[in-house]
Amino acid sequence: xxxxxxxxxxxxxxxxxxxxxxxxxxxxxxxxxxxxxxxxxxxxxxxxxxxxxxxxxxxxxxxxxxxxxxxxxxxxxxxxxxxxxxxxxxxxxxxxxxxxxxxxxxxxxxxxxxxxxxxxxxxxxxxxxxxxxxxxxxxxxxxxxxxxxxxxxxxxxxxxxxxxxxxxxxxxxxxxxxxxxxxxxxxxxxxxxxxxxxxxxxxxxxxx
Length: 208
What we know:
Layout: H1 4-19, H2 23-35, H3 37-60, H4 63-68, H5 70-95, H6 109-121, H7 124-133, H8 145-175, H9 182-205
């Protein structure tokens, strides 16, 4: 249904956009550096699940609510900001512990996956971004626009997944040089906590 040239242009655009520093890829970066590649990839799966929500919202027109309703937009972004502050608190709390890799302190993969989902769906900017991006590559002359939106959303998710997994593997490899000492782990968690605080502030201050 989608011509090859449209798919190629969209995939390259999606990969470039996935590399731009933002809440999602920075979240993957920090989780991979502090908890390892497996954690980063699990978080990535959660984030990609969140993108399914945003794709569906655009395809069904729900994203337009966030575009027209300031209240709905503000409620969702403040929930996301509070959650980021909560993650910052957890990172700073972990930085005060000497043994950061005990079984007690390691998060389950299910919890990391849920964090990724919640992190993504509580950012209304993602829905608005998809609302602005995906329809540009759809064409009513090629059939169902709704189906094309879902296909484009799927391509974006696949492209972002490749980029985010690459970030996760690279970040985990770099962090392996540091995690041999407890002090390095402490600073990695403090850096992660600081990033979450900055992202929370940015999310709370964004406008439509």
